[in-house]
Amino acid sequence: MYQEDLNPYNSSEYEKFFKTTLLYKKISKNYDLVSFDNDLMQIINGLTTRTVLSLSILDAAPFYYLQYLTDLNPSKIYDIGCRANLFKKYVPNLIGIDVLAAKKDRDANADEYLKINNRFYEENFETMEAAFAINSFHFFPLKKIRERVIQFSSLISKGGRGWITFNAAIMLERQVKSKIRLNSKNIPEEEVEKLEKFVRKELYDLPFKLEVFECTINKELDSPLTGNVRILFTK
Ligand SMILES: C[S@@+](CC[C@H](N)C(=O)[O-])C[C@H]1O[C@@H](n2cnc3c(N)ncnc32)[C@H](O)[C@@H]1O
Predict the structure, then answer these.
(1) Quick one: pLDDT at residue 39?
(2) Shortest CA distance to 152 belongs to which of 179, 167, 134?
């Protein structure tokens, strides 16, 4: 059995809705361009590299998913592997965790410098009411995807919500020990289709209530912005 998409993100519908919110008003003051696409190439499509470099751009698509978390009014929302911690300004009670310290990485801006490892999982078992990880838990072979989703869900307390995204290219690279960046142009189409089926099969019947499930590997294997496997659940 294969996990089908559930409540997938619709960029034009969401754009229409989001532009009526106070959050959009706040964000649009700070950025030249607010985009609504989960795919980086679509966002910069038609713009020259120089134009892209001259703009401040925020991708608002993650707010579609984050709304499920903020709807719970949690006292804390953890952004795990937050890197630049960009959502902190706009999401109440957000705490960004990352292993990278600002002194060593110019894009790092975590509230807490922590390495997510087995000890972290043990110490934080079912303690988080809301947490998300955008493309930060995908540095492992693709065949382990189900195990890693379940591991992430172990952080979420009963009734809490989690959102996790993966870029399949990163996981495939680790699986086949590729030295080059993999994408839909250098992998045969049938292989990419097989990968999508594999992921849908592995993620069928997960042990929690799915709210959103999307797998867009067939569209593009390498999806560095918000991943091509997106899972949002209630525990
Ligand atoms: C591809 S970046 C994604 C950053 C951010 N979530 C975003 O969407 O812009 C992955 C981040 O995860 C962090 N990360 C990866 N493995 C980690 C670990 N074991 N513990 C803590 N942070 C980790 C990295 O330091 C990096 O900042």
Answers:
(1) 85
(2) 134
Amino acid letter for position 173:
E
Asked if the structure places residue 28 within a domain, the reply is: no
pLDDT in tens, 125-147: 999 999 999 999 989 999 999 99
* Residue 61 in tokens: 């698509």
Residue 51 lies in a domain: no
How much is the pTM? 0.96
Q: What's the domain count of the chain?
A: 1
We report the CATH number of the domain holding residue 144 as: 3.40.50
Question: Rounded to an integer, what is the distance from CA 39 to the centroid of its chain?
Answer: 12
- Best of 136, 139, 223 for a ligand 1 pocket test (most atoms within 8 Å of beta carbon): 136
Is residue 142 within 8 Å of residue 195, measured between CB atoms? yes
